[in-house]
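Internal QA ticket QA-208
Title: Verify multi-chain structure generation after dependency bump
Assignee: T.L.

Test input:
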Amino acid sequence: MRILITGAAGFLGSHLAERLLLEGHEIIGVDNFSSGQRRNIELLSEWPRFHFLEADASRPLDIAGPLDWVMHFASPASPPRYLKLPLETLLVNAEGTRHLLDLAVAKGARFFLASTSEVYGDPLVHPQPEGYWGNVNPVGPRAIYDEAKRYAETLTTAYQQARGVSTRIIRIFNTYGPRMDPQDGRVVTNFIVQALKGQPLTIFGDGCQTRSFQYVDDLIEGIRRLMEVEYHQPVNLGNPEEYTMLELAQLVQELVGSRLPFVHQPLPQDDPRQRRPDITRAKTLLGWEPRVPVREGLARTIAYFRELLYTSPEVSS
Ligand code: UDP
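Actual output:
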């Protein structure tokens, strides 16, 4: 197949591109490096079937030749990153999704949207099934991401219904693994980099808020399975193993083998108190469930960052 992936320099886009290249497909990767990393494109460029287009995915793209899939993974995704790029985040998920859906129509391609568990906001239902409509503050700081992804889901659904595009929507819960940007400000990268550098671990608020962490290979497997099924409703992809941030900090310390103090910093506004996916739909539809336990996934991720800090100490300075 010939597949367009926006956000190919990003953490998820680059893993997805690699998986599809390994299967023998041809990939056109798009990124403008607003939050993606050049080293991810350098890795992918070793494949002759990978082509890179440096472009902003919020604007129409001029792609020659046929396409089987348009997969939209471009967006700043960590809270500090999207807070720094508010309008870009809104545009790539709103205008970008529209242009990419038009491209899918023009090429007769299928369309795949990377949505997010953030559509559930600060959820009042726990765990979160796809049928839960969410609790999002439309004018809060996170709205630039949450509402843009919600709109992207609406737009995708409208193109499926009005234009007959074969669409897929996944809601991605917190995902971690090698190739995350060490400076993206997420909790997993912050804790690992802090622990490896012997710095105190920064706990926001009291640390009792929860997240559920999925290893990247599990996510990519879920995506791959959904591509094979004609199903247009959103599908949660996440690992239901739920941790408080204090528990996560302790686990990272233990795996790194260091005992460092915790420093508490203010909880960001509208930070969700809890998050855990109900994955019944993915299990039933795709026969999918996460296989990598958090301990093992974190150990692999720590090994990656240890190597990265050793070979390129400037990346986390
Ligand atoms: N967090 C933390 N310390 C950090 C970074 C984040 O305690 O150094 C908390 C953050 O407030 C949130 C959780 O960890 O409650 C997950 O944050 P992240 O930015 O990874 O992703 P989110 O799930 O909020 O999008």
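Spot checks passed. The domain at 2-176+213-240+273-291 is CATH 3.40.50.720 (Rossmann fold).
Status: verified.
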